[in-house]
Amino acid sequence: MTDPHRAAPSSSDLDTEALAWFARLDRERGVEQNAEFQAWLAGHPSRQAAFARWQADWQRLDQLPAAGVAQLRRQLAAEQAQADRKPAPAHTGRRAWLQGWSALVPQAAVAAVVVLMAGGGSYLAWDHWQQQPVFVQNFSTERGQQLDVQLPDGSRLRLDTATRVEVALYRQRREVRLPEGQAVFQVQGDAARPFDVLAGGVKVTVVGTRFSVRHTASVPGDNGVRVAVEEGRVRVAAAGGAVSPPGQPGAAAVVLIAGQQVAADAAGRMAPVGPVATAGVAPWRDGRITFDDVPLAQALAEFERYGPTGLMVRDAAVGALRMTGTFDPRRLENFRQALPKVLPVRLQGEAPHTEIVGAH
User: Fold this and answer.
1) Residue 73: left (phi > 0), alpha (psi -120 to 50), or beta?
2) ∠ Cα 197 199 205 (to 5°)
3) Is the Cα torsion angle 194, 197, 202, 206 positive or negative in sign?
4) Which of 124, 183, 203, 348 sits at a 20 to 30 Å CA gap from 277?
5) 111-115, 261-265, 273-277, 290-294: least confident range
6) Which segment of 78-82, 142-146, 217-221, 250-254 scores lowest on mean pLDDT?
7) Phi-psi region at 200: left, alpha or beta (left = phi > 0; alpha = psi -120 to 50)
8) From CA 268, how far away is CA 55, in angstroms rounded?
9) Strand, helix or coil at 100?
10) Cβ-proximal residues to 359 (8 Å cutoff; 6+ apart), any chain
11) Is the alpha carbon torsion for 265, 273, 237, 145 positive or negative?
12) From CA 120, how far away is CA 124, in angstroms rounded?
């Protein structure tokens, strides 16, 4: 009869005993062995839970793909070789038993179970396998090009000109890095797999929504990150930041809802939350770029993202003139004609080497 006052075995001893019985029952299915197993289970109430953990792990291991098995077998061989080079008298018997494990269970499971003897503890390499991506691919656009991307999880990305994204989908999370450019994300909802966009100094986390992210480190005066939400909610955070009240300058993190946007500098420090501009979260989807009181030099740099303009500014005072308006980057001539009408400037020289100079 089980003694309820008996001290519980250590977790490492329980795991070792449970794993031994699991392997033995897989190999020997006689009545005698089952009777012995039942007697072992009755010896202490914690044994049933330890055995159940191995059963659950086994079910997960059965799902290992061939590539994951091969990788984990290599890891097992390397770690076992390293362990055998180190003197460890206290664990010699247990390590020898584990080396015999390959004779007791299917090879795929052997490859997946990696036991590290460190302080009497152990863990499954299945956890490591869980962290490996199931889909990895980079996408990019040239100047003047846009691209629609359908991801295996059902999410869609719309990439603007001169944009690069790096996609990695994992079993428990999804991640997209945006080193340069801007994109609209329409994320397929999956509460068990959050979707993170990493751009500059911020991380945008969602479950299912539509939003835009801009990170144009190559554009002078616009090298931070801007996030604008069209549908749903997103969390925008600096690395390691905790949620702060929305709109607080320099907040470590904010939550945006539809119709809101926020800008962050290269270090992830955020400006106050504001409304999305009337042009929308991504007017470039309709072939438009919108300027709202931006320096002329920055506006020219934005046009250059879509193609060569043949326009230049040498005078810093002229480059600092601020402009507002909406333009089609594919129709540069319209912009050239509008410039002298909206700013005190004139065009000097012929394309493709035209300088914008002061009107006087």
Assistant:
1) alpha
2) 30
3) negative
4) 203
5) 111-115
6) 78-82
7) left
8) 45
9) helix
10) 340, 344, 345, 346
11) negative
12) 14
Q: CA-CA distance, 199 to 267, in Å (whole number)?
A: 11
Amino acid at 32: E
Contact 7, 45 (CB under 8 A): no
What is the full DSSP assignment across 322-356? EEEEEE-TT-HHHHHHHHHHHSSEEEES-TTSEEE
Q: Which residue has the tokens 């396998």?
A: 129
First to last CA, the chain: 103
CA atoms within 13 A on the CB side of 226: 20
Residue pair 359/345 in contact (Cβ under 8 Å)? The answer is: yes
Q: b/e for 19-43, b at 16 or more Cβ within 10 A?
A: bbbbbeeeeeeeeeeeeebeeebee
Cα separation, 97 vs 109, whole angstroms: 16
Q: Write out pLDDT tens, residues 70-110.
A: 555 555 555 555 555 555 444 444 334 444 443 334 433 43
DSSP assignment, residue 63?
T
> Whole-prediction pTM value?
0.61
